[in-house]
Fold each of these.
Amino acid sequence: MVTNDSTVGHGTPAAVENALGADNYLNHGRGLGSWFTTLDHKRIGVMYLVSILASFLLGGVFALLVRTELLTSQKTIMDADTYNQLFTLHGAVMIFLFIIPGIPAALGNFVLPLMLGAKDVAFPRLNLASYYFWIAGAVLALLSIVVGAVDTGWTFYTPYSTSANSSVTMITFAVFILGFSSIFTGLNFIVTIHKLRPAGMGWFRMPLFLWGLYGTAIIQVLATPVLGITLLLLIVERALGVGIFDPALGGDPVLYQHFFWFYSHPAVYIMILPAMGVISELVSTFSRKHIFGYRFIAYSSIAIAAISFLVWGHHMFTSGQSNLMSMIFSFLTFLVAIPSAIKVFNWIATMYKGAIVLATPMLYALSFLFLFGIGGLTGLFLGALAVDVHLHDTYFIVAHFHYVMFGGTVIAFLGGLHYWWPKMTGRMYSERWGRIAALLVFVGFNVTFFTQFVMGAQGMPRRYYNYLPQYQAYHQLSTLGSYLMAIGFVVIAVYLLQSLFRGAPAPANPWGSATMEWQTSSPPPAHNFDATPPAGDPYDLEPWRWDAEAGGYVRRAPAASA
Amino acid sequence: MAENHAQHLAHHFDSAEQQFESGKLGMWLFLATEILLFGGLFCAYAVYRANHPEIFVYAHRYLDKVMGGINTGVLIFSSLTMAWAVRAAQKGQQRALKWLLAVTIACGFVFLGIKFVEYQHKWKEGLLWGKRFAPHAEGATAVASPASPPALAPPAGGGEEGTLLPQAAPGPAGLARADAGPARHESAEAPKNVQIFFGVYFTMTGLHGVHVIAGMVLLGAMLVRAVRGDFGPEYFTPVDLTGLYWHLVDLIWIFLFPLLYLIH
């Protein structure tokens, strides 16, 4: 009776279907106009994806230029002012244009309603508005580069930012507008998850990616307005001289730092929480095993979101805040390690005795575990008061940040991009080149940033244009690593673009996942599902078996229940 | 009526009730973002007031309590008409709905008019923010000149905590606590940095004013739709949500008025 593996009759046609030749969301409306006015969350997700990848390219070029300048301890290719502008723009573009909207607005927009078996997000027009706010912010930010690039660092600290004679006003206004884009996405996701879950999908039957997006959305909605008012105050400070941050008028510049980090610390969890959600999906699917510790992973997302609001002072240990405050912030910072570690241990437990498939998305998931582990643990060095005084403003913190943000978020983003690529495009990418590129990125990343841990611990300060000769070998190794990474990204770009035209047609479920987005055709129809699939356990992979004939995973009838 | 119902139901919702609840939750979340937006300013207010109560006690006397009080009354009244308008929409009383929306908008105009008169007085007397602070009218002459240096905190006596780190540098007025004397200055002598109060006053009331204008634009749109006859017992979500927004704008003023005008 266990050998009863007849396919479920009614599920079969849609379950293996590739819809490239049929009506799907990509060809449902024709012409550019149908894209720019679309209310379809999938199309908005794709437009976001293209836009943020363009930003990633721009920010990446800035990074390569910065690294190239640092090849020698003196001037290499640019003067000091240009260098200051480039590292500022690298930070601002990567953070505000790429990594904050990255996973939620691009992948999340595409996947979230599909995972719920819904037709769309709760507010489709708000979703499109959020995209256009992003475009407006991006255009303003680029204009500010043309008019006169900022050199304040991406944090826009006062008093330099209020006195610097550059286009600070324009780029901070751009970030203010980008904030609206982020808030609208978060608001939409919260309402969608609350109100559009299908019958039978309780909170603890949601895929964990949605828990990640939910935690993210809470932070987006509650923290972003504080950045908004901070930047607004910065703008009126520059325009009118209100004096709230100006010591000459009785104001306090440290208040700016408090405000800024009240947003910007939770913002790093806006970046990492959806990444952790992606990893939960990948680890379970590619270990062919039910996720371990579902509730702990779900609750830890919310715990991270909650604690994230209480740790901003750890950016200000050397700002002159009282020792008592520093101690409290240090303690709270250590607390964040607990839910983060809970997640990592649960992912490892999921892999234990699993049948691990080393497909490209899983390679990125494994990279994530390794790199996020290093990034997270070095965060504890920085959260410790005494050690931080030594490491503050050195390359150690640059390395830590990139291990978490790049090694964590970007790597998970790449994993998610490869994972959902067949669903988005209806095409498979080259698995062999995917693995080679994942390896290149992993090695290049470590060469770039591990050396920065070493030189930072030895005292190399961040943001310096010139440096002492003793650091030259590290800088050159780091630059070499960044070129290696760049090659990896070129390879990714080439094979992904190639797959759009030559890729093998993707089955509905190429990986054998049990979440709902794999139960509609690849690419999905404009209305997502012909018939909404029943909500079940999103990690019950047992019924999904590889069907060589269909070229994809197909749901088998449950073994006779008797 | 049933057609009206289906016409307003977006394709991705199962029922009008689900759509209404989604809209309402979305609006409440948006209001949360508004509270946090103002929260930054309330926080700045709290920091400066806690550390320099003398500035606030001294400077608030230059605000006109009567005008502020009238404005408070006007906004509370407009909240009443707004709530009534929502009720009228729910009960399908088209004529009452139109009138109540119009009265609410009119209250917005009255509020802004009075605010304008207040701003004008401040402008004439030079009681402005930060670097524009240059008091010259009678009664305001005692206020310190804007060029006065920031009040520095006295060096912390006796090293409060045993530490090997150097003492924090004395901060500017904002976060560093001035330990000098009793907080209450009853004398007419002006404390330092009075311009901070007016900076906070103009930013908070200015941002609130922008929100009043935004609310009036929304109300105007509701009025146009009400005249067109869009609303009825089957469909009143937009009026309801606009009402929520308008109440929040009122509520923020209810906090601003005592915090800025009624200080003891």
Amino acid sequence: MNVIEVDKLTKYYGKSRGIIDVSFDVEEGEIFGFIGPNGAGKSTTIRTLLSLIYPTSGSAKIFGKDCIKYGPEIKKDIGYLPSEVFYYDNMKVIDLLKYSASFYKKDCSKRIKELSEMMDLDLNKRIDDLSYGNRKKVGIVQGLLHEPKLLILDEPTSGLDPLMQQRFFNLLKEENKKGVTILFSSHILSEVQRLCNRVAIIKEGRIISLEKISSLRENSYKRINVETAVDVRSDYFKIDGVSNIEIKDNTVSFLFKGDINLIMKKIAEISISDVTIEEPSLEEIFMHYYMRG
Amino acid sequence: MNVFLHELKSYRKSTIVWSISMAALIIFFLSMYPSFSSSASLVKKILEGYPEPIRKAFGISIDDITKFLGFYSYVFSFVVLGGAIQAMNYGISTISKEIKLKTADFLMTKPIPRNEILTSKLLASLTSVIITDIIYLVTAYITAESVTKESFNIKLFFMISVTLLFVEVIFMSIGVLISAVVGKIKSTISLSLGVVFTFYIIGMLQATLNDKAMKYITPFKYFDTEYIIKNSSYDITFVIISILIVLISIFLSYAVFLKRDIHAV
């Protein structure tokens, strides 16, 4: 069964582009990644699903019901965490969470306690005394306290330290095991790779690819920078899978795709003074991975 | 109900401050009445020294001001001005507050239709204004009883006083419409002061020029105290105009707000 069905969703803000003909389905129980650079249309899509904005054309269904027409009804089972959380500043955390819970005709106090302990959140502080990261935690608890069947997360990790990020991911995995479907939007590829089953990639308002994470991983690029101690021949690294070689003084940088062992051997054979291997930026992925056709 | 209570709570401080200020204002003004009435002829002479346009602008009528209701209607115009600012403020914040504080995302991703959100918020604003008005009215009445030696027409006193609420409801509905259409408003207080004073000044001009047509432009002139005292009733034309303004503003506010895109920050 599909929890989310998006059909040719299009949104223009006046004349400027929001999203164009976006279509994808999210199956029940999966963690679906939604990835693209800033301004690609991730938030526009998500905000339409939540009927915060209205589509220019096309439609979307959640739990099989039109997300605009049945908005209030389907939101009972949706938890939403925006990229930037803002709450009524003069409230205490616990009061805000109780206010949030009051919209879902069920007792959420136990869940509030559980979640805030897990996220290490002080319930008695005032919201305006909280740091950015702690506000984010309020957002996480607020999004999960009513045990939603669908979680919509819009760049949820910004502002969380690595430890909290880890806990948050574990929490998401746990929820997912209980059968919760998750739509996870991000501009950080590694995050999506760690968590998601499938991923939609959006660029300039259009979905350009819909892939399983396993196939994405096979094709994953690394950006490798090698600082050599001695001069090397410019074609030394020219093996299969290497592209975009740039040589500057003693630094060689390139993109690599393929068996990581091969390139590690190659690097080990020469004398180097430094090496970094990093995820390429999304732009680079778009440039090299999606323009292959 | 939860949104209504939440909103009411968020207005609590402001309602207390407005209630106290308006009560203090009327105590201050009315406590001057005894000295006013005891030296009536002197006061009349002083007022005659002012140029007529200024007297008209401030709604001073020499014959009436030494009588209690005449005096009360004069100071009451300042009370209405204050009430209008409060109501306009609440009206404008109804929607723009959520957008300015960026809490719209929180509220509108909850399982509650937008019209219910707006209704709860409007009722909360209205309740706050009514609470302020009741405190004002009780204070005004007690003060009036204690400063007057002669008896005054209590029915007229209430008929005049309750127009405070009418004018406030008009301004509040205009405020809601503004906030539904504009959305994000940086400074609520300066906008509401601007709008309210514009109408107030139009009212002063109207009184000075004695222009009949201008009366229709400013809600401050819809419930003319002189008319109420003379006829013991409200001018039905303006009652109808008031109801129309309120209904149309509220209707348009709902229509705009329900279709409005709530943009990301």
